[in-house]
């Protein structure tokens, strides 16, 4: 039996306070295991991003429990066993594409030379070789998104979360990027969760989770 | 309506943005308002002091052939004339007196006829020393020359008439002898004439009986002057008051149709005061405007910190269909709100600051001044708001596009000024202007005697201004060059803080070079302002003490005009008093050089410095020790004032024969002296011409060891010691005892005309606020502007320590760079300002005085503000902003 990377029960996330808080996630109970490939689907505003942030330890649930049995404490998840490719522009403006991609390794205490070399490999793979020394303001939204995916992969994490990673890409480029992600996940034995509207992306994932009315419906039964 | 909704939303949703901009504007308005109030009040105070120092405002000399009675009526009826009394002037061919079996005779003199009530009408014009307060009064020096006292019969020589015998009823001092005996109607620039040595004051009737016939036959020599007191209602500005009084004097001369000439004593005093007033304006330019400019810059930075958010809001408004006109309306409303709030708070702050710093109750001495200064300060506040909020909104509304709205980090084109090398041009301008000012001897104030308007060489002020701005821009250029080309060095420098992230930190700093260089420049400008202000103010206040010491002579002085000097036992008694550190006696005699009677002081050159500081600036060559050693080395050595050296073309080592009065026969004898040095100023000495010789030699050649002056250095309160010294001397001595603290308050001209102590408190307090605001706020806002960057880094897993390494690396760079710029340009600015304002200093300072404690405190405040800002930012970054993360 593979390791359980994430386990959550009765997760709920509300924003705002007072008498009418906004409910982003009403209920989510799930497990993510090593090697899982999960497509998280649902309409806009259904709570996919909020759930991804809670899985990444970026946000805390308003109610319920989430733990990372095989990954450690929430504060040790990033950089290291968990990485996330954000939906929006998330490259650091003062750093070049290459420096952005290398950053997780450096934050984890890696050597600069190793980080640069590993970043270069991924930059080549996502087709940004010529953009490596460009600043985020000098590249397109699609290129920035590919750089964000490269950054999520560079530290060889055990759980990769990608929030609409192909939102600004054409169909062919998106397919290519997903393939590349699969290859890396396969090589590292990692789990991959992709939140996407794109049916073609979701179709390629063995597991499909759906957010309906801000509630998560999973295909696999939980062990608890 | 939508404007009100927008403003209400701003106040509710963006309170920090509004509060920050309001605070910046309030600081600028408060600084301008309180400085304006200070200088307006100072100028009014100068006028008051100038007026109060004049006893007889005008002396109108009736010209020959004019009926004095008719002229007197016209004078009394002239506008603004409060009192008008006729005084008769007649020459005496000589005075003689018999005493102790010998006959004493003097040279020519003057005999005045005083009307009844003169001393009551002009109190202070005559100081009574001995005997009666009316009747026949003899001037003190004349009494000394004639060995006369109350009851002595003297004979007044009259041309063509037998000598007039009169009995002396009192001995008096004439403190205003210079103006009392002035020659009225001489051309401007003519050399002033010394007052007569021998003066007798007679009652008007007695004078009329003695000289009435001569007045008819020799009207040019025997004449009547009307002494006038004017209404004190004058414009508060000395220049305006001078113009007003001068015009009134001309008007009176016109009314008299050539029958009288006006000797304008009040105008002369105001003339001196208006020069000081112009210096006050210049000090305002130096000390006030840079502070206001800094406050404006800081306000601009606060405004710019919200620029990205404002652009986003503007873009949203445009998407929703708002026209550029609507957006400008909203920005205008925001600017108005912030401007009005900032100005109101600033004006209230100015009133409080003025009250705390120098006890002012309003913005000026008159309602007009108060309204004027408040309006100017408020208008500046509104203009600042328009510039910092309306300006960017207008620019964005015209040019904003999606692409343009994106962050520009490090590869933007260099600004226009950098491409034009404006920094280098400004520094060259500063050097050239300063060099020209130095060549002209720093003569920035030109006030030809008799001319109403003062011309100021305002272009000289380009030197410090161009230096300040040029140095700041150059620091920006250097900083951006260091950050863009010095990445490897930066990475090495940040390694202790950032460890393995040092390369990324250096890269980040390099790409943020515009932001960091802006912060460095503002901190540098603020530090430069604070340092130059503090150094200037300290130098100013030190020199004002030196000036007062020069005028007063020492912490406490006792002086008598009696030839017999101070009682011999008083020196030892004073030494024993509590609070007395040192006592030095000083002789005060008179000596003729050619036909000029000058003061001669006898000192002990080896010990004089124990009682009063011997500044290098007192002596030509700038070495007090060497000059005093030269004086000590030769028994007959004498130091001569600069003016006398020039007038008589003296060369070092020349034999100088002075006529000095001997105590043995009271006659003047030729005494040889050797000229060994040039003295510019000396404690208690007059400003123009005097001699300093060794007391032992003066005692020998005059046959009298009497000391007229006593200089006391205190280690306690000068007024308290002065009281004790008065007690030791007793009322019978006739000696005048003065102390430094009182002198500081009454010195009229030159340096202490403007009491900067309140201003110094105000300036230094604002410098503190600006330093804290500039360093802390600029850094904090710079980092807050990049909250999103730090939030992403935190989302990627950056630890607090790693985020802190970015923050502290930038903070240290900006602080060190800013302080370095501040220290260098602050020192250079102080040097230039003190040099340019040489005219303010009397004597010029030997060097700049650095207020170490204040500067250390300032450094502490700057570093403290930066540490607090950095720590606050790090604390805020520990948990990434939920709003930003949600947007990712």
Give a verbal description of the structure.
The complex is a heterodimer of chains A (224) and B (888). Chain A is an alpha/beta fold and 224 residues long. Chain A has a single domain (4-217), classed as P-loop containing nucleotide triphosphate hydrolases (Rossmann fold, 3-Layer(aba) Sandwich). Chain A is 31% helix and 25% strand. In chain A, the strands form two sheets. Chain A has a six-stranded mixed β-sheet, sandwiched between helices. In chain A, a hairpin with a 2-residue loop joins strand 8 (207-212) and strand 9 (215-217). Chain A is globular and about 50 Å long. With 888 residues, chain B is an alpha+beta fold. Chain B has 31 helices and 24 strands. In chain B, the strands form four sheets. Chain B has a nine-stranded mixed β-sheet. Chain B has a six-stranded mixed barrel with strand order 17-18-22-19-21-20. The longest helix of chain B is centred in the middle third of the chain and has 40 residues, at 513-552. The two termini of chain B are 35 Å apart. Mean pLDDT of chain B is 82; it is low at 402-410, 448-452 and 747-752. The chains are: A alpha/beta (224), B alpha+beta (888). Chain A binds chain B through residues 15, 49-50, 53, 58-59, 77-80, 83-84, 86-88, 90-96, 99, 103-104, 106-112, 135, 137-138, 151, and chain B through 406-411, 500-501, 503-504, 507-508, 510-512, 786, 789, 792-793, 795-799, 802, 880, 882, 885-888.
Question: What is the domain tally of chain A?
Answer: 1
The separation of the N and C termini of chain A measures: 15 Å
- Average per-residue pLDDT of chain A, rounded, comes to 88
From the N-terminal CA to the C-terminal CA of chain B, the straight-line distance is 35 Å
Q: Which radius of gyration of chain B do the C-alpha atoms yield? A: 35 Å
Main beta-sheet strand count, sense and barrel state of chain A: 6 strands, mixed
Sheet bearing the most strands of chain B, described?
9 strands, mixed
Based on the structure given, which CATH architecture of chain A is correct?
3-Layer(aba) Sandwich
């Amino acid at each position: 039996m593979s390791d359980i990377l994430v386990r959550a029960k009765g997760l709920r996330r509300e924003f705002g306070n007072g008498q009418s808080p906004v409910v982003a996630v009403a209920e989510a109970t799930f497990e993510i295991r090593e090697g899982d490939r999960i497509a998280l689907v649902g309409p806009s505003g259904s709570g996919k991003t909020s759930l991804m942030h809670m899985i990444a330890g970026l946000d805390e649930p308003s109610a319920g429990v989430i733990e990372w049995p095989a990954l450690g404490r929430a504060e040790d998840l990033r950089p290291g066993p968990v990485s996330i490719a954000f939906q929006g522009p998330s490259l650091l403006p003062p750093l070049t594409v290459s420096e952005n991609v290398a950053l997780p390794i450096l934050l984890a205490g890696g050597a600069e030379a190793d980080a640069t070399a590993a970043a270069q490999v991924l930059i080549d793979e996502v087709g940004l070789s010529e953009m490596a020394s460009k600043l985020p303001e000098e590249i397109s939204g699609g290129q920035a998104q590919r750089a964000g995916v490269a950054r999520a992969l560079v530290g060889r994490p055990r759980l990769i979360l990608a929030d609409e990673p192909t939102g600004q890409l054409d169909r062919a480029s998106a397919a290519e990027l997903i393939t590349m992600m699969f290859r890396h996940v396969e090589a590292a034995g990692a789990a991959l969760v992709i939140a996407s509207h794109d049916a073609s992306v979701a179709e390629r994932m063995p597991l499909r989770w759906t957010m309906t009315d801000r509630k998560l419906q999973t295909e696999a039964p939980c062990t608890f | 309506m939508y404007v009100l909704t927008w403003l209400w939303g701003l106040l509710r949703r963006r309170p920090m943005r509004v509060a920050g901009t309001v605070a910046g504007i309030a600081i600028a308005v408060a600084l301008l308002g309180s400085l304006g109030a200070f200088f307006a009040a100072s100028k009014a105070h100068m006028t008051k002091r100038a007026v109060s120092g004049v006893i007889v405002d005008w002396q109108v000399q009736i010209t020959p052939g004019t009926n004095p009675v008719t002229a007197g009526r016209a004078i009394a009826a002239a506008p603004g004339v409060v009192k008008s009394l006729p005084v008769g002037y007649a020459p005496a061919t000589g005075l003689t007196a018999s005493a102790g079996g010998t006959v004493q005779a003097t040279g020519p003199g003057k005999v005045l006829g005083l009307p009844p009530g003169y001393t009551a009408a002009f109190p202070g014009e005559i100081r009574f020393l001995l005997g009666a307060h009316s009747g026949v009064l003899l001037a003190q020096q004349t009494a000394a020359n004639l060995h006369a006292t109350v009851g002595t019969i003297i004979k007044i020589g009259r041309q063509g008439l037998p000598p007039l015998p009169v009995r002396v009823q009192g001995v008096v001092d004439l403190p205003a002898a210079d103006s009392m005996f002035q020659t009225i109607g001489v051309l401007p620039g003519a050399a002033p004439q010394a007052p007569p040595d021998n003066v007798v004051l007679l009652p008007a009737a007695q004078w009329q009986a003695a000289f009435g016939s001569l007045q008819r036959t020799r009207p040019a020599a025997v004449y009547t002057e009307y002494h006038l007191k004017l209404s004190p209602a004058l414009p508060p500005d000395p220049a305006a008051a001078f113009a007003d009084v001068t015009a009134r004097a001309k008007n009176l001369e016109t009314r008299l149709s050539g029958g009288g000439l006006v000797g304008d004593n009040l105008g002369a005093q105001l003339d001196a005061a208006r020069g000081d007033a112009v210096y006050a304006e210049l000090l305002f330019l130096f000390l006030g405007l840079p502070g206001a400019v800094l406050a404006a810059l800081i306000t601009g930075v606060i405004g710019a910190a919200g620029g990205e958010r404002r652009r986003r809001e503007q873009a949203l408004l445009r998407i929703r269909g708002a026209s550029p006109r609507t957006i400008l309306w909203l920005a205008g409303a925001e600017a108005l709100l912030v401007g009005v709030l900032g100005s109101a708070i600033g004006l209230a702050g100015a009133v409080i600051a003025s009250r705390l710093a120098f006890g002012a109750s309003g913005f000026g001495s008159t309602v007009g001044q108060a309204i004027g200064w408040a309006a100017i300060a408020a208008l500046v506040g509104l203009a600042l708001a328009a510039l910092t909020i309306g300006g960017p909104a207008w620019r964005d509304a015209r040019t904003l596009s999606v692409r343009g709205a994106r962050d520009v980090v490090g590869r933007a084109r260099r600004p226009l000024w950098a491409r034009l090398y404006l920094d280098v041009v400004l520094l060259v301008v500063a050097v050239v202007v300063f060099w020209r000012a130095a060549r002209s001897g720093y003569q920035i104030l030109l006030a030809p005697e008799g001319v109403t308007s003062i011309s100021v060489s305002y272009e000289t002020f380009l030197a410090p201004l161009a230096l300040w701005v040029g140095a700041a821009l150059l620091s920006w250029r250097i900083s951006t060059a260091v950050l863009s080309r010095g990445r490897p060095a930066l990475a090495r420098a940040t390694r202790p803080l950032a460890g393995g992230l040092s390369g990324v930190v250096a890269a980040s700093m390099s790409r943020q070079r515009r932001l960091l260089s802006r912060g460095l420049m503002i901190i540098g400008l603020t530090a430069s302002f604070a340092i130059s202000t503090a150094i200037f103010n300290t130098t100013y206040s030190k020199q004002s003490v030196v000036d007062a010491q020069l005028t007063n002579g020492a912490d406490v002085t006792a002086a008598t005009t009696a030839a017999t000097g101070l009682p011999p036992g008083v020196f030892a008694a004073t030494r024993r008093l509590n609070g007395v550190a040192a006592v030095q006696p000083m002789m005060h005699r008179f000596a003729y050089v050619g036909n000029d009677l000058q003061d001669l002081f006898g000192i002990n050159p080896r010990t004089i410095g124990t009682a009063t500081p011997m500044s290098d600036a007192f002596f030509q060559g700038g070495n007090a020790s060497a000059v005093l050693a030269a004086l000590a080395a030769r028994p007959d050595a004498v130091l001569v004032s600069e003016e006398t050296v020039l007038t008589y073309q003296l060369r070092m080592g020349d034999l100088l024969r002075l006529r000095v009065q001997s105590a043995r026969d009271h006659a003047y004898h030729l005494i040889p002296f050797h000229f060994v040095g040039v003295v510019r100023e000396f404690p208690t000495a007059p400003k123009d011409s005097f001699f300093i010789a060794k007391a032992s030699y003066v005692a020998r050649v005059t046959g009298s060891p009497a000391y007229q002056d006593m200089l006391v250095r205190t280690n306690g309160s000068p007024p308290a010691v002065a009281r004790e010294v008065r007690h030791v001397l007793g009322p019978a001595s006739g000696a005048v005892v003065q102390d430094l603290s009182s002198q500081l308050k009454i010195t009229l001209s030159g340096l202490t005309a403007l009491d900067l102590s309140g201003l110094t408190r105000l300036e230094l307090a604002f410098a503190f606020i600006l330093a804290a605001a500039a360093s802390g706020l600029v850094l904090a806002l710079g980092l807050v502007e990049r909250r999103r960057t730090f939030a992403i880094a935190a989302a990627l897993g950056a630890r607090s320590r790693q985020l802190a390494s970015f923050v502290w690396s930038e903070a240290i760079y900006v602080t060190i760079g800013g302080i370095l710029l501040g220290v260098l340009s602050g020192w250079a600015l102080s040097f230039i300002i003190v040099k340019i304002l040489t005219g303010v200093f009397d004597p010029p300072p030997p060097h700049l005085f650095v207020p170490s404690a204040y500067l250390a405190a300032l450094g502490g405040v700057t570093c403290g503000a930066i540490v607090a800002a950095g720590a606050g930012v790090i604390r805020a970054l520990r948990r990434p902003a939920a709003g930003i993360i949600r947007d990712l």
